[in-house]
């Protein structure tokens, strides 16, 4: 009998994110080559093509790139919200003891890059980009770790995932607080009323994907028109999705045995088709299957592949295409400030704060992780990319030249930080024979 390998949820997550990082890298290369090729005009025209709807006095028309950055990325942020809620509820951040080490690392990874940017950037015109180097691109980082194979212990990957999720939460708060303008508070109040209703329904045991979708679209529009970036709506909506199951696994397994017996004992059709009674039992099985699954876990599972393999590569393809030619006017000061913040700010901040957590006695190094490996991961965290480009779009949306310069800084800084992290982990890592995934016949 053949054996199937069952990966635990953390390993599945890492595998998905690792391959997503490869797709992101490929999409980035294609974007840069396309934008600087003889077909470069078609690149700009494609993402600038306007789409939308017009209904009497209402109009919602945007360039394609904004539909990606405001629309598709709202789904990306929704998934981030689901991941944050899961980690806070049942994951690596659900207790002070678990959360303290990655939390200290994340604080360093947020504060120090911003500080390095502010100190190294002398141009007031570009100071709006201070938050660009603050978030870690988990897909790219895990993809680089994947190249190292067993040299990187699983706990190190979990540590990177945990503090990157806290980084994302910090980035979400910064976008909401510092990159929103001209806020229309009545629309925000209306949006929060709808979100509050979803929370109330969720706490009362009612959850419907259709209701979530319809209310989510309305909330997204309200945030868009209110002056707060609509992707924030995705994070808030994610927190209304219940994490609890309606029935316990043990009860589901008992019901599974009963349904199996009932199908076997039900009358059978002579032509090999299922009988009416058997179909009814299978419908009953579908009901039990839905009840035993956590709505949050089920949504996260279904969205993860779409976000990792479709939305993020499309975002990279649409945003990474920086045109570099003899006539291009790049702001070298901005490029250097972002690159330094991603390389040095991230590495110093995460390494120092992680050591502070250990030396102060409030935390300890996770099992199987050495201090020098924390340094390697600290450099890997300087791969900003997705969230960094996203914030750059908000910071310099009215200045294409500065936006292009910011993207060059992000690409350069991420490349150097990723390479440094890879070399450190390769030089200091030993082959780890981690516990094999559970096998079942």
Describe this protein's structure.
- The protein is mainly α and 441 residues long.
- The chain folds into 2 domains: 4-179 and 229-244 and 294-440, Na+/H+ antiporter like domain (Na+/H+ antiporter like fold, Up-down Bundle), CATH 1.20.1530.10; 249-288.
- 69% of the residues lie in helices and 4% in strands.
- It has 16 helices and 4 strands.
- A two-stranded antiparallel ribbon has the order 1-4.
- Helix 5 (138-147) packs antiparallel against helix 6 and helix 8 packs antiparallel against helix 9 (231-238).
- The longest helix is centred in the C-terminal third of the chain and has 29 residues, at 400-428.
- The termini are close together.
- 42% of the residues are buried.
- Residues 1-7 and 432-441 have low confidence and may be disordered.
SSE blueprint:
Elements: E1 4-6, H1 9-35, H2 40-48, E2 50-55, E3 58-63, H3 64-89, H4 96-120, H5 138-147, H6 154-178, H7 185-203, H8 209-226, H9 231-238, H10 249-265, H11 276-292, H12 295-319, H13 332-359, H14 371-380, H15 386-395, H16 400-428, E4 438-440
Antiparallel strand pairs: 1-4, 2-3
Q: Segments where pLDDT lies below 50 for 5+ residues?
A: 1-7, 432-441
Helix content: 55-70%
How would you classify the helix and strand content by structural class? mainly alpha
**Major beta-sheet overview:** 2 strands, antiparallel
Number of beta-strand segments: 4
What proportion strand? under 5%
Sum up the overall morphology in one term. globular
Q: Helical region count?
A: 16
The arrangement of helices and strands along the chain is EHHEEHHHHHHHHHHHHHHE
């Amino acid at each position: 009998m053949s054996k199937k390998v069952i990966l635990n949820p953390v390993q599945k997550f890492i595998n998905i994110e690792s391959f997503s990082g490869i797709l992101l890298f490929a999409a980035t290369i294609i974007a840069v080559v396309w934008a600087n090729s003889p077909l470069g005009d078609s690149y700009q025209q494609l993402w600038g093509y306007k789409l939308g709807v017009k209904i009497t006095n209402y109009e919602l028309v945007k360039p394609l790139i904004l539909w990606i950055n405001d629309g598709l990325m709202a789904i990306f942020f929704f998934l981030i919200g689901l991941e944050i809620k899961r980690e806070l509820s049942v994951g690596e951040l659900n207790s002070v003891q678990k959360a303290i080490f990655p939390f200290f690392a994340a604080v360093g990874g947020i504060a120090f890059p911003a500080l390095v940017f502010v100190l190294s950037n002398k141009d007031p015109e570009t100071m709006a980009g201070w938050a660009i180097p603050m978030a870690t691109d988990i897909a790219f980082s895990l993809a680089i770790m994947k190249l190292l194979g067993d040299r990187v212990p699983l706990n190190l990957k979990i540590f990177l995932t945990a503090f990157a999720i806290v980084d994302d939460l910090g980035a979400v708060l910064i976008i909401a607080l510092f990159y929103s303008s001209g806020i229309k508070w009545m629309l925000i109040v209306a949006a929060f009323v709808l979100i509050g209703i979803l929370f109330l329904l969720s706490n009362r045991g009612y959850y419907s994907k259709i209701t979530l979708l319809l209310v989510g679209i309305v909330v997204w529009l309200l945030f868009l028109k209110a002056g707060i970036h609509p992707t924030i709506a995705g994070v808030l909506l994610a927190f209304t999705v219940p994490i609890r199951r309606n029935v316990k696994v043990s009860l589901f397994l008992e019901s599974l045995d009963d349904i199996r017996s009932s199908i076997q004992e039900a009358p059978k059709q002579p032509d090999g088709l299922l009988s009416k009674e058997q179909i009814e039992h299978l419908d009953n099985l579908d009901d039990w299957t839905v009840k035993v699954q956590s709505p949050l876990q089920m949504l996260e599972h279904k969205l993860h592949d779409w976000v990792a393999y479709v939305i993020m590569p499309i975002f990279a393809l649409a945003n990474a295409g920086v045109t570099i030619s003899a006539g291009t006017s790049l702001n070298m000061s901005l490029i250097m400030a972002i690159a330094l913040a991603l390389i040095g700010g991230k590495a110093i901040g995460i390494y120092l704060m992680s050591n502070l957590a250990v030396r102060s006695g409030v935390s300890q190094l996770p099992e199987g992780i050495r201090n020098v490996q924390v340094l390697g991961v600290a450099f890997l965290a300087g791969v900003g990319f997705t969230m960094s480009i996203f914030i750059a779009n908000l910071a310099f949306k009215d200045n294409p030249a500065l936006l292009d310069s910011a993207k060059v800084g992000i690409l350069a800084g991420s490349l150097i930080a990723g390479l440094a992290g890879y070399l450190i982990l390769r030089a200091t890592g030993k082959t780890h024979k981690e516990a094999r995934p559970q096998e079942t016949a």
